[in-house]
Amino acid sequence: MAGRQATAGRPRVMARRPEGEIASGLVVREVAVEPGGCTGWHYHRVPLMAVVKSGTLTRILRDGTVVVHRAGTSFVEPAGIQHVHLGRNLGSEPVVLCVTAALAEGDPFALPAEAPPGATPCACSAHAR
Fold first, then answer.
1. Which of 31, 50, 67, 106 has a CA-to-CA distance to 85 between 20 and 30 Å?
2. The pTM is what?
3. Counting Cβ atoms within 10 Å, is residue 31 exposed (0-12), middle (13-18) or buried (19+)?
4. Are 77 and 50 in contact (CB under 8 A)?
5. What pLDDT was estimated at residue 17?
6. What single DSSP character describes residue 46?
7. DSSP string covering 96-113, please?
8. Half-sphere exposure of 17 (CA within 13 A, CB side)
9. Residue 25 vs residues 42, 98, 104: alpha-carbon distances, Å
10. What pLDDT sits at residue 106?
11. Average pLDDT, the chain
């Protein structure tokens, strides 16, 4: 997701994996989507939790389902490319999300993706910040 994404401090947790120890922890980001803007089609490698601080976010899921989230509500984004989605701001005020995910150091927050078969490619006027 392009644009403004403020990242809060990351609590460090050492995790053991076969290849050795890695630093990981919770990442908290504020994501803003301006009126008429969108996130672009993307997915996440890990589940994330989002709280809508202001505005109304319209999510379009891979299967074409449309889900609307208003200020004060929250939702969970499942992990994996099979959960490609697009977030849009169809309202007149900015959408501001507070998003939390458990990521290893250096892992991307979101991965851009092509529009799913049958879906309209992203043609939003502005991407998330």
1. 106
2. 0.77
3. buried
4. yes
5. 45
6. S
7. EEEEEEEEETT--S-EE-
8. 10
9. 22, 16, 6
10. 81
11. 83
Give the C-alpha separation, 100 to 51, whole Å.
9
Eight-class DSSP state of 19 = T
Cα 129 from Cα 38, distance rounded (Å): 10
Residue (of 93, 109, 120) closest to 50 by Cα position:
109
Q: What are phi and psi of 27, to 5 degrees?
A: -120, 130
d(CA 103, CA 96): 21
Helix, strand, coil percent values for the chain (each to nearest 5): 0, 50, 45
Q: What are phi and psi of 81, to 5 degrees?
A: -65, -20
Cβ(37)–Cβ(126) below 8 Å: yes
Nearest partner of 46 among 97, 111, 129, 112, judged by Cα? 111
Domains of the chain: 5-127 (2.60.120.10)
